[in-house]
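Continuing from the previous page...

OK, I double-checked the sequence for G-protein beta WD-40 repeats containing protein against my notes and this is the correct one:
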Amino acid sequence: AAFFIFDTFCSSSKLLKKFDGHVKCINSIDYSTFDSRQLLCSGSRDNIVCVWDIETNQQVQSFHGHSLFVFCVKFSQYHYYSHHQNVICSSSYDTTIRFWDFKHNQQLQMFGEHANTIKLCVYGMLKHQNHYMFSMDIKMLNNIGLIGGNGYTICSTSFDKTIRIWDIESTKQLILFKGHKHYVNNVKYGSNEFINTILSGSTDFSVRLWDMRSGKKIQIFNGHTDVVHAVEYSPFVIKNSDEVIGGNSNVICSGSSDNTIRFWDIRSNKKELYVMEGVGEKGNDGIKSRKE
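Thanks. Re-ran it with the corrected sequence; updated structure tokens here:
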């Protein structure tokens, strides 16, 4: 398997780089800069995590510790800025989350309390009292009133229908969210007024909003007729009947295999504010991801 970098600013969409090395499909990639080096990491169904140097087009490192395929990979800004370590986090079908030091080619930590496959991992930072979160949106980050440790956390979703928040240093589980009736496919940490919340989308067709302080569900948003793959706190102003419904704090959106993107008022679990219809028949591909 290979992945590519295209020149998206040219009308020709010229291929700039191609990285070969994986032997099965690639599930996840991430980009970051470490010590002035531009790097990519990748996770694959061949169970391998790889790091690539974009400038030299070379593989920097590969890790073979996972026993089943890798779902998600993220560079850890926490390790870099706190300890000046070059670290990747990966989650796998083998039910573990692992941290890899790609400068010294070693595994640092392993988390493994999910009863089933870990689908997604995201970083966050818990802070004391009135301080706010560190939201690196390396797919999801967070913040709440500090529970323990130094405040840095990682969030994982799983096929065991749960969402878990972990302390990175101690590897201890801090919060467990239960309520989804099927796999949890995606989560997102809130910010601003909703900094103490988490948003999730599931194979049970629902979108849920959670309170990180109480560990309880706040709202369930029902309306999708197929699997929810993507959730996001919307920065957009939504208009309905020429009336402004929400700004950057009270509107969320979700993408589903029902080929729709739906917008919801975070303050209410009533019918969606707005529905964007997709192209094609239900269940073919659907909407798998969204990003501003």
